[in-house]
Amino acid sequence: MLRRTAVSLLVTSFGWAALCAPATARDLDYQGWGARVGATSSPGMPVLGAHFDLGEVADRIHLVPALELGLRSDTTVLTLVLPLLYVWGDTDALSDNARFYVGGGAVLNALDAEGSRARGEDFEVAPVIVFGLEVRGGLESPFLEGSFSTGDAYSRKLVIGWRFRRY
Fold first, then answer.
1. 30, 57, 79, 99: least buried by Cβ within 10 Å?
2. What is the pTM of this model?
3. Which domain, by its residues, includes 105?
4. How far is Cα 98 from Cα 89, in angstroms, rounded to an integer?
């Protein structure tokens, strides 16, 4: 467990460093926020949360962290998702009907499950792959997003949500 967490953190750190190197030419800027709700599998649990669009790190690559809470009768998971998302289409025009995006990064999971503290599994870092579709509608946009992770908290997640843009 510790070795997998260390490797995941190392790979994620190098990936972020490589992708963020061009960020000196761009300004990260708060673009908006959104609400999300969904479900995970393995284990199955409902998830609710919020995300923040912090702008472009590089051309068409957005930093969109999310904070999510998963609840089940014997498990509570608080997750910080830190993905970099590549967005297809004209990201500046609000007239597009839809935008597809895909990306990856890391999830930081804080687990509170029966017996998890005894096994030393109350916190983990794992890689995540994210993909989605956003329907453009002016300053407000619904979206559908899926993700895969190798963490112990969940392996697959599907969420729907709404984005609210600043301008």
1. 30
2. 0.76
3. 2-165
4. 8
